[in-house]
């Protein structure tokens, strides 16, 4: 398994949780539980992305009660590949949920 430097992981998680929180929730709803109400990305490695999420019946501070690991399409080792794989997950999540994905930059 490839591993990324802590500074890379921290930057990716900050970007996902600050700028793409809705995408994380969409990914969790598609690949874990349709009723998820909160989600955040908590790790990224060469094999998968990792999220935690909450359901409606969970207490407000139970965000980390449920976990999701979604494997990438193939193992990755470069920072640019993280974005590519998250975009792939986002597109797959949209397809799974019947949502039109927004255009990618």
Structure report:
With 105 residues, this protein is of the alpha+beta class. The chain has a single domain (6-97), classed as Split barrel-like, CATH 3.20.180. It has three helices and three strands. The chain is globular, with a radius of gyration of 13 Å.
Task: Describe the structure using short key phrases.
single chain; 105 residues; alpha+beta; Split barrel-like; three-stranded antiparallel beta sheet; 3 helices; 3 strands; 42% helix
Show the helix and strand layout:
Blueprint lengths: L5 H14 L1 H11 L6 E7 L3 E7 L11 E6 L7 H19 L8
Antiparallel strand pairs: 1-2, 2-3
Helix pairs in contact: 1-2, 2-3
Summarize the structure.
The protein has 105 residues and is an alpha+beta fold. Helices cover 42% and strands 19% of the residues. It has a single domain (6-97), classed as Split barrel-like (Alpha-Beta Barrel).
Kindly report the spatial arrangement of strands forming the biggest sheet: 1-2-3
Beta-strand segment tally: 3
Q: What is the average per-residue confidence, as pLDDT, rounded to a whole number?
A: 92
What number of domains?
1
Distance between the termini: 29 Å
Return the CATH class. Alpha Beta
Radius of gyration, in Å, reads: 13 Å
Helical content class: 40-55%
Counted by DSSP, the helix tally is 3
Stated plainly, the CATH topology is called Split barrel-like
Order of helices and strands: HHEEEH
Instruction: Please indicate the percent range of residues in DSSP E strands (runs of 2 or more).
Output: 15-25%
Question: Unreliable stretches, pLDDT < 50, 5 or more residues?
Answer: none
CATH architecture: Alpha-Beta Barrel
SS-based structural class?
alpha+beta
Largest sheet: 3 strands, antiparallel
**Spatial shape:** globular
* CATH superfamily descriptor: PNP-oxidase-like
